[in-house]
């Protein structure tokens, strides 16, 4: 997964056209073709990615209700960011995001690593298990969320009926209560993502040479020792890649919250992207929503840069 | 994705582990099994405990009718999802493979810098640009249209990156031979590169299709007309219409999940290979 574009920079130097007689010589033709071929994508990314990002930055220094039109844009400097620092809804959203990341990423990774090792080294019908654990990941998240909403029903749902049956007098109200709503969303989040991590870990495991294990077996290593001394260290690049990409995607969690709780009850399950959505498209506070967007961008950018730096160092 | 064949020692402990894993995977898939059984029930039987895994009374046909033959039928949502996912996938494959071809096989000034910049733009999360995109799509007059949604999700730097990696590995000999035969750059791209890239196009195409099919956020923000809803918004529509009818809801969930599930089971190798390349939805 290394992202190495330094080597490409030497390609950028183009020797000057050798022939002066014909303007459209081979080299010029190739350059023109190259530029034409990348043009749609480059224009598209500028239009739908780079320009909007700059636009968000501009808007984050303004107060603007979209309905008022362009004339209604009011420049207010850093006020939006100052307000964010003391906005309890925002701080709660940030806290919920951190909570979601803190639980889904490590728990998902540990569960998936165990499953991956067992499936890879000990089980028959590997392909069946890969598919079974992977199904939730490709299933439409809102359709799956609808199932969990029924399972988590506070009084009648199968989960709480089961908990009552095994003697829990007062099971959590899950999505219906401020105390347990994030727990419920985290459980669904882990269930959703585990299969993805299993697949990536298995593809990492299959690159470890079997001779390493055989050598360890000759030295009398047991399953646990092989796991700790061989598997875990040799998988560390995969683990690192997964940790960062999962952190990034967990900061973008939206579907579950928007579909199941709309940030509720009483804002208890608000997360960053949902807050952007609520401020921007329900309250039409475009400036404020843009400021939150930039917080999200900075978090994701920092994580991405950390990943590139470390992967770049490993590649050298 | 390549795989080293690891010989599995045929002993009893492996059989026991496989059986335990089998039980675990059934437990793991219980929510989906519950959905399947509930979609065939009468509403009054849904929350009966202990759960009737195989319904005593069947209401499958009525639930099916409620989902597929109501005022705003599921068929419409299906068609919209199919349309959005196929067109977006097709356009993405063309745009990304074109620039991947240029970045891997053509020399032009600024190529390295441009490619580096594109990779840097990978870090822009789609969600951070929602507000200006909303404004721009309104300016373009594409609000509440499928064209607007397609325009927003047809560019994918990550897929360009994957395809470029693949094309770099294709020998230049094919291209040189074609050049001698007098083929132009477009002809080389269309007649030589694309056919040679079929495996990566299939892998990337399936993943893109799944992502667009499952997209909820963009349609939620950029569509309001029920007739244009894809299946994800259709789920939300059913949730407000049938909030307390879990049997119908589960039939809707089943209808939303099933086609992808079938595609996945048939094409599992390509899907898993695509995901192993590192594609996480974001």
Structural write-up:
The complex is a heterodimer of chains A (316) and B (282). Chain A is an all-alpha fold and 316 residues long. Chain A has 13 helices and two strands. Chain A folds into two domains: 16-78, no CATH class; 80-315, MetI-like (MetI-like fold, Orthogonal Bundle), CATH 1.10.3720.10. Helices cover 69% and strands 1% of the residues of chain A. Chain A has a two-stranded antiparallel sheet. Chain A is flat and about 75 Å long. Chain B has two domains: 12-66, no CATH class; 74-241, MetI-like fold (Orthogonal Bundle), CATH 1.10.3720. Chain B is built from 16 helices and no strands. Chain B has helices at 12-28, 30-38, 43-46, 60-68, 74-105, 111-121, 130-139, 146-153, 157-168, 172-180, 185-196, 198-214, 217-222, 231-241, 246-266, 268-276. The model of chain B has no long low-confidence stretch (mean pLDDT 88). Chains A and B meet through helix 1, helix 3, helix 4, helix 5 and helix 6 of A and helix 1, helix 2, helix 5, helix 6 and helix 7 of B.
SSE arrangement:
The complex is a heterodimer of chains A (316) and B (282).
Chain A: H1 26-60, E1 62-63, E2 74-75, H2 79-86, H3 88-122, H4 126-138, H5 141-151, H6 158-165, H7 181-205, H8 210-218, H9 223-234, H10 236-251, H11 255-260, H12 272-282, H13 286-315
Antiparallel strand pairs in A: 1-2
Helix pairs in contact in A: 1-13, 3-7, 3-10, 4-7, 10-13, 12-13
Chain B: H1 12-28, H2 30-38, H3 43-46, H4 60-68, H5 74-105, H6 111-121, H7 130-139, H8 146-153, H9 157-168, H10 172-180, H11 185-196, H12 198-214, H13 217-222, H14 231-241, H15 246-266, H16 268-276
Helix pairs in contact in B: 2-15, 4-15, 5-8, 5-9, 5-12, 5-14, 10-11, 12-16, 14-15
């Amino acid at each position: 997964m290394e992202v190495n574009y330094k080597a490409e920079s030497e390609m950028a130097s183009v020797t000057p056209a050798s022939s002066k007689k014909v303007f459209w010589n081979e080299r010029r033709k190739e350059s023109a073709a190259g530029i034409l071929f990348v043009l749609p994508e480059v224009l598209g990314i500028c239009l739908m990615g780079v320009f909007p990002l700059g636009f968000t930055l501009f808007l984050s220094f303004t107060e603007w209700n979209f309905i008022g039109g362009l004339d209604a844009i009011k420049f207010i400097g850093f006020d939006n960011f100052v307000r964010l620092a003391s906005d309890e809804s925002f701080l709660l959203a940030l806290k919920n995001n951190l909570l979601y990341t803190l639980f889904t990423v490590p728990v998902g990774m540990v569960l998936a690593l165990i499953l991956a090792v067992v499936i890879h080294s000990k089980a028959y019908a590997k392909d069946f298990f890969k598919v079974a654990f992977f199904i939730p990941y490709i299933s439409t998240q809102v359709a799956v969320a609808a199932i969990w909403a029924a399972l988590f029903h506070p009084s009648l749902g199968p989960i709480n009926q089961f908990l009552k049956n095994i003697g829990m007098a007062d099971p959590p109200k899950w999505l219906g209560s401020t105390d347990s709503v994030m727990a419920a969303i985290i459980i669904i989040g882990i269930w959703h993502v585990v299969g993805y991590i299993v697949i990536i870990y298995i593809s990492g495991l299959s690159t470890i040479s079997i001779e390493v294990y055989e050598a360890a077996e000759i030295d009398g290593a047991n399953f646990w020792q092989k796991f700790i001394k061989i598997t875990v260290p040799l998988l560390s690049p995969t683990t690192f890649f997964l940790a960062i990409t999962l952190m990034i995607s967990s900061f973008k969690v939206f579907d579950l919250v928007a579909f199941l709780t709309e940030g509720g009850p009483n804002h208890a399950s608000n997360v960053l992207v949902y807050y952007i959505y609520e401020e921007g498209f329900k309250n039409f506070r475009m400036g404020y929503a843009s400021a939150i967007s930039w917080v999200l961008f900075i978090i994701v950018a920092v994580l991405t840069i950390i990943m590139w730096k470390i992967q770049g160092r490993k590649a050298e | 994705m390549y795989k080293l064949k690891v010989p599995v020692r045929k002993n009893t402990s492996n059989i026991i582990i496989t059986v335990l894993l089998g039980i675990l995977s059934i437990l793991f898939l219980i929510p989906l099994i519950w959905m399947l059984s509930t979609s065939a029930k009468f509403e009054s039987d849904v929350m009966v405990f202990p759960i009737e895994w195989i319904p005593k009374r069947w209401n499958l046909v009525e639930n099916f009718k409620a989902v597929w033959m109501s005022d705003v039928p599921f068929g419409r949502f299906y068609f919209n999802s199919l349309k959005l996912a196929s067109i977006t996938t097709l356009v993405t494959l063309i745009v990304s493979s074109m620039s991947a071809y240029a970045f891997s096989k053509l020399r032009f000034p600024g190529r390295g810098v441009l490619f580096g910049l594109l990779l840097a733009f990978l870090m822009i999360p789609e969600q951070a640009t929602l507000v200006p995109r909303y404004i721009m799509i309104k300016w373009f007059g594409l609000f509440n249209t499928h064209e607007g949604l397609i325009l927003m999700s047809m560019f994918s730097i990550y897929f360009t990156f994957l395809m470029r990696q693949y094309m770099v590995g294709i020998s230049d000999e094919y291209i040189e031979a074609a050049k001698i035969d007098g083929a132009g750059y477009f002809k080389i791209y269309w007649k030589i590169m694309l056919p040679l890239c079929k495996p990566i196009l299939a892998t990337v195409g399936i993943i893109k299709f799944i992502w667009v099919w499952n997209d909820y956020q963009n349609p939620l923000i950029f569509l309001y007309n029920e007739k244009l809803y894809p299946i994800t918004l259709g789920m939300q529509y059913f949730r407000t219409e049938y909030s307390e009818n879990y049997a119908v809801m589960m039939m809707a969930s089943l209808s939303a999940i099933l086609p992808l599930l079938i595609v996945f089971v048939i094409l599992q190798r390509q899907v898993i290979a695509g995901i192993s390349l590192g594609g996480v939805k974001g």
